[in-house]
Write a structure and sequence with these properties.
This protein is mainly beta. The protein folds into two domains: 158 residues, no CATH class; 158 residues, no CATH class. The N and C termini lie far apart (49 Å).
C-alpha cells in the first residue's frame, strides 16, 4: 500500500495524487483507516463507501501550506466548534487551520438516494449563536477565520423566527452574521414588509436556492438599516425634481407550469447613501438612481400576481 507524508503523519493512499505548484500535496484518496489529530478532535478519515449514500471515497484536500482544507469523515463524529459541539460527516478548514464549515450529513443525492432520504437522517442541532441558543436542522454551519459564527444553512422546510432590525422575521434557508456578531442577512420564509430608503417593500425571494446561508436576499447594514432586498410584490416610483415619474417593477417570465402562465421574477434593490440600484431581475442590467434631488415611494405590484403563492409549485 502506498503512503504519502503530510503534516498529520503518513496517510495510506489509492489512485492519483494532486500537487500544488509549490510541491505541496493538494489532494489524495485514503486507502485505509486513518485518524487525524486536529484542534477540533481526533477525526476518522473516510476510506470506505456504501451502496446508497456515499458511492465513492471523497478525497482529502490540503491548503498550499500543508494544513487540511477538506476532510470527509468515515462516520458521524462529534467535533468541537466555536458554536458548540456537533456531529459532522464533513468538515472544511481555513488556511490558518480554523474551522470553516461543518456539515452534519454528507450523502450523495441520486436516483437511489433522494433529499427526502437524506432528510430522514437530519436531526436537530443546538448551537450557540449571536441570537442565543438555536436548535434546528441544518445543512451546514460556517465560521469566519477568526473563529466567529458566519452563517447557518437551514435544512429545506426548516423555519426559524429571527429577531432582526426589521422585527421578528420567519426565516428559511439561512442566517448570516458579521464577525462582531451583528446580523448580516436572512432569507424570509414568506413576504414581510420592511422599511427601506425608498419606502416599505414586501421582502421575499421566490427563487431563493438554499445552497448556503452566507448571503441572503434581505441584508442589513451594521447600523440596522436595509442594505439589500428582493421583492416580487412591490414597485418603486422615482419622482424627479420636475415631478416626472419613473416606475420600476419586477419582471415576469413564462411559468414552468406551462399553459402560457406568467410568474413574477424577484426584483433586487440595493441601497447606499448616494444611490439606489434596481435590477428588475437578478440577471438584468442594473439601473442606478441617485438619491440627490429625487423622491421615492413604493406601491403594490399585484396586477398579475394577486395570489402569487398559488403559482409557486413549479419554482419553489
Amino acid at each position: 500500500m502506498d503512503t504519502v507524508h503530510t503534516r498529520y503523519g503518513e496517510i495510506p493512499v489509492a489512485g492519483c495524487l494532486e500537487w500544488h505548484d509549490n510541491g505541496a500535496l493538494m489532494s489524495c484518496a485514503p486507502a485505509g483507516p486513518m485518524l487525524l489529530e486536529t484542534p477540533h478532535g481526533v477525526l476518522p478519515v473516510q476510506h470506505s463507501t456504501d451502496d446508497l449514500r456515499r458511492r465513492t471515497v471523497q478525497a482529502l484536500h490540503f491548503h498550499r501550506n500543508g494544513l487540511l482544507k477538506h476532510l470527509p469523515l468515515e462516520a458521524p463524529t462529534e467535533i468541537q466548534t466555536p458554536a458548540g459541539r456537533m456531529r459532522a460527516e464533513l468538515v472544511t478548514f481555513h488556511a490558518n487551520g480554523a474551522l470553516a464549515r461543518a456539515f452534519p450529513l454528507n450523502g450523495k443525492l441520486s436516483g437511489y438516494w433522494t433529499q427526502e432520504d437524506e432528510g430522514r437522517l437530519a436531526g436537530p442541532v443546538t448551537l450557540a449563536t449571536p441570537l442565543g441558543s438555536v436548535t434546528a436542522r441544518v445543512i451546514g454551519v460556517s465560521f469566519c477565520p477568526e473563529g466567529t459564527l458566519r452563517s447557518l444553512t437551514l435544512w429545506p422546510g426548516e423555519v426559524l423566527d429571527v429577531l432582526t432590525p426589521a422585527g421578528v422575521i420567519s426565516t428559511r434557508t439561512g442566517i448570516s452574521f458579521r464577525p462582531d456578531g451583528s446580523l448580516r442577512s436572512v432569507e424570509p420564509a414568506r413576504p414581510v414588509p420592511v422599511t427601506t430608503p425608498v419606502g416599505v417593500v414586501q421582502a421575499f425571494d421566490l427563487d431563493a436556492c438554499g445552497i448556503h446561508g452566507d448571503s441572503n436576499s434581505l441584508a442589513f447594514t451594521p447600523d440596522g438599516s436595509v442594505r439589500r432586498v428582493a421583492t416580487s410584490l412591490t414597485q418603486i416610483v422615482a419622482v424627479g425634481p420636475d415631478k416626472s415619474e419613473r416606475r420600476f417593477r419586477p419582471a415576469s417570465r413564462e411559468s414552468l407550469c406551462g399553459d402560457a402562465e406568467r410568474e413574477p421574477v424577484p426584483m433586487w434593490l440595493e441601497f447606499s447613501p448616494e444611490m439606489v440600484l434596481v435590477r428588475a431581475a437578478p440577471d438584468a442590467k442594473p439601473v442606478r438612481l441617485s438619491t440627490a434631488g429625487q423622491a421615492f415611494r413604493t406601491t403594490p405590484h399585484l396586477e398579475q400576481f394577486a395570489n402569487p403563492f398559488g403559482k409557486m409549485g413549479c419554482t419553489v
